[in-house]
Amino acid sequence: CLTEPHAGSDLGLVRTQGVPQPDGSFAVSGTKIFISGGEHDLTDNIVHLVLGRLPDAPPGPKGLSLFLVPKVLPDGTRNAVVCERIEEKMGLHGSPTCVMRFDAATGWLIGEAGRGLNAMFVMMNAARLHVALQGIGLLEAAWQKADAYAAERRQMRAPRPAGAVPSAGPDLIGEHPAMRRILDVQRAWIDGGRVLAYRTGVQLDIAKYHPDAAARAAAQGWCSVITPVLKSAFTHQAFHGASECLQVFGGHGYVREWGIEQIVRDARVTMIYEGTNEIQAIDLLLRKVLPDGGATLGTALLSLRRELDAGRPDHADALRRFAELRYLVATLVQAAKADPVLPYEIADDFLRLVALALMGWALARITATPGGTTTRWQQPAAAFARQVLPEFEMRIKMLQSRCQGALQPADAA
Fold it and tell me: I need a labelling partner for 164 at 20 to 30 A (CA). Which of 20, 103, 211, 372 fits?
């Protein structure tokens, strides 16, 4: 339980308070909002992890502590935890989103006082990876519905290559280039996203369990820079890609009967919770990339570069994007010193750039495997290379231009 009516992304504004009691417990009071599953009867108990502050705690994030507050106390009595209401939401209706009120509820301090955020961030990388996978799963569900519809719906004649015998028509809409583009591009996002998410899942395990300290540190570095990219990029694509899949249905997609509109509504929240996508972008650039001059990101990209074959054109393109990204980071470090506001303005574009570079790598790796030579894998990757990857060049030129503008004094222009 983190968010309060007045404290969203800025958790330093949290007012919930835990007052020490003679028996070592704390009387926790405050209101929390957007609490998923805050009240239900599916289990005998609900244990809330509540972010709050002690009475003498300093203001801001450093004054926050974490409290364990159960719905039912160990002696079986009901704690002073109340669900005030369930939010009426745009989507995700299968999850009750509650407003929770704690009226001097009995709780216990977790860890040290004033280190509540540190305790919460222990689970943050995993939580954000899970949301990225939720986005990929929602896009998969939308794609499956759209692909099935395109394989049975017939409309007009589809264009044929020069010299080909025209069909009698009407053709399946999946044979129309406009619909095929939608389906292939979303399939590529799903395929590439899974490769990157599964790799990050392995890195999370290495960071926690590997016996070698250097291996753990390298894996932790990977997770710190790649996780915010995955959370932002694949929740963004979940919503926008599901909307594209709805387009395959035409007017039928806007009708509840077909189910695709629910996926669009459900996907929208993933761009908001577990840290908004804008916060992810700021976290990546301002906290993970610029402070060490891009060293951690560079190490992560180096591990991917070693798996590419420069003799393959698609692999050479992926290597080139990595090189351009490293050069941009070096320029960004200098530009940020000249204009401290610039990184905040371009953080979203920078994260998108990293995501495209990673997707180029992932699809190049997929299509180079023995099983990746079939049309099932090659066609989506080729569509992505034609329709999406050119965006990398556009964005990197824009960011380079912004950096040059920051590095050149206005009177020298």
Answer: 372
